[in-house]
């Protein structure tokens, strides 16, 4: 492998691990995108370096994105990290956030064989989606029945917490702030986090998924084969 190949691979690697996107259409990264696919040496070195750090690279709309692999404590978040970031105290509050994130994902994708089904989701729609999913668990629907005993206990704990929370922390639903004191507050807290991670853009009460979201969502379904 020559010096130029190594130099290009290291430039791509350094950009990706710093959270940058490498887009074909962007003047500053277009040549790097082309080199990643055109030069097998560059491709192999980048993927090996990322794998060593437990990082995965995904593509969407001719743009490369990187994400931390499962259990990556350096580039990812631990449960305690996320609780501090979100201002949560209990593990089940964090698991409720995970549950909301997954229901958000399912609003746009259902499995690995489907494509994006909509352009955006409204806050009230997402609230209802999470509520319907939680009610299904409480009624022990097909999804609940397919889980093992430990998983059932965990999902039921999340559903119970959801139903313990009031809809809103005050009388004006539009002014309710993000927080853990209400269902609406938890949904807003979750969406604020996803916006901070560059996965969504918000316009009034509409949330639009970014290309980064689509790259991670489609990559996720491909990795877990729709489970």
Q: Can you offer a commentary on this structure?
A:
With 227 residues, the chain is mostly helical. The protein is built from ten helices and six strands; from the N terminus they run H-E-H-H-E-E-H-H-E-H-H-H-H-E-E-H. The strands form two sheets. A three-stranded antiparallel β-sheet has the order 1-3-2. It is elongated and about 60 Å long.
Topology (SSEs and partners):
Layout: H1 3-17, E1 22-23, H2 30-38, H3 40-52, E2 55-60, E3 63-68, H4 79-86, H5 91-108, E4 121-122, H6 123-138, H7 142-145, H8 149-164, H9 183-196, E5 200-203, E6 206-209, H10 211-224
Antiparallel strand pairs: 1-3, 2-3, 4-6, 5-6
Helix pairs in contact: 1-2, 1-3, 2-3, 5-6, 5-8, 5-9, 6-8
Summarize the structure.
This protein has helices at residues 3-17, 30-38, 40-52, 79-86, 91-108, 123-138, 142-145, 149-164, 183-196, 211-224; strands at residues 22-23, 55-60, 63-68, 121-122, 200-203, 206-209. It is mostly helical. A three-stranded antiparallel β-sheet has the order 1-3-2. Strands 4-6-5 form a three-stranded antiparallel β-sheet.
Unreliably modeled segments: none
Task: Please tell me what the overall shape is.
Answer: elongated
Proportion of residues in helical segments:
55-70%
Number of helices: 10
Order of helices and strands: HEHHEEHHEHHHHEEH
Return the average pLDDT rounded to an integer: 87
Question: Could you tell me the radius of gyration in angstroms?
Answer: 20 Å
| Largest sheet report | 3 strands, antiparallel
Strand content: 5-15%
């Amino acid at each position: 492998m020559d010096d130029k190949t190594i130099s290009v691979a290291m430039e791509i690697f350094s950009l990706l691990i710093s959270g940058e996107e490498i887009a074909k259409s962007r003047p500053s990264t277009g040549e790097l995108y082309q080199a990643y696919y055109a030069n097998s040496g560059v491709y192999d070195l980048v993927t090996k370096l990322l794998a060593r750090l437990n990082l995965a690279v995904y593509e969407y709309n001719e743009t490369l994105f990187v994400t931390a692999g499962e259990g990556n404590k350096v580039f990812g978040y631990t449960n305690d990290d996320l609780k501090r970031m979100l201002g949560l105290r209990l593990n089940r509050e964090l698991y409720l956030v995970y549950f909301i994130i997954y229901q958000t994902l399912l609003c746009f994708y259902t499995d690995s064989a489907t494509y994006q089904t909509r352009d955006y989701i409204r806050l009230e729609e997402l609230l209802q989606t999470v509520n319907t999913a939680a009610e299904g668990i409480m009624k022990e629907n097909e999804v609940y029945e397919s889980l093992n005993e430990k998983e059932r206990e965990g999902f039921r704990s999340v559903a119970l917490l959801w139903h313990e929370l009031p809809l809103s922390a005050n009388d004006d639903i539009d002014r309710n702030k993000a927080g853990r004191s209400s269902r609406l507050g938890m949904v807003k807290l979750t969406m604020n986090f996803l916006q901070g991670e560059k996965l969504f853009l918000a316009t009034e009460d509409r949330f639009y998924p970014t290309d980064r979201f689509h790259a991670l969502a489609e990559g996720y379904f491909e990795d877990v084969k729709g489970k």
